[in-house]
Amino acid sequence: MIRRNGTYEAEVRENMRGGLGEARIEHLWRADELHGRARLFSRITLQPGCSIGFHEHLGEAEVFVVIRGEARMLDGDRDEILRAGDTILTSEQGHSVEAVGEQTLEMLAVILPEPKG
After folding, report:
1. I need a surface site. Which of 19, 37, 64, 116 has the fewest CB within 10 A?
2. 0.85 exceeded by pTM
3. Domain annotation for the chain: domains and CATH numbers
4. Distance CA 92, CA 85 (A)
5. Residue 57 Cα distances to 2, 7, 74, 85, angstroms
6. Among 94, 99, 70, which residue's Cα sits nearest to residue 82?
C-alpha cells in the first residue's frame, strides 16, 4: 500500500500532554492498518517554542526520529538535545519534547507495545 505525502490524516492538538502551543500530527499509518504492531506511526511537527508535555507510556515504548530541527528531550531524568538524524527510544519512564532553536521541529514517532512474556 502506498500513501502519498500530503494525503495523511492530520490533527492539531493544543497544549498536547500539558505542553505549550500546537502539535501537528500526521498519521502516516493508523493502528488498525498496522495490525496491532504499533499504536502510532506519525509525523509530528512543532514550531519553535512549542512542546509536548511530560508523560508516560505504560506497557509501551516510543521511538522518535528527528527529521528536521532541534529537540530538547527529557527522558526520565536525562535531558538531551537531538538534531536531524538522531533517535531516542523511551520506555517505562516519562518523557517530553520541546522544539528549540529557530527551525520547525519535525519528527517521526512510533509507539510500540512492550513484548508480552
Report:
1. 116
2. yes
3. 9-113 (2.60.120.10)
4. 24
5. 29, 28, 14, 23
6. 70
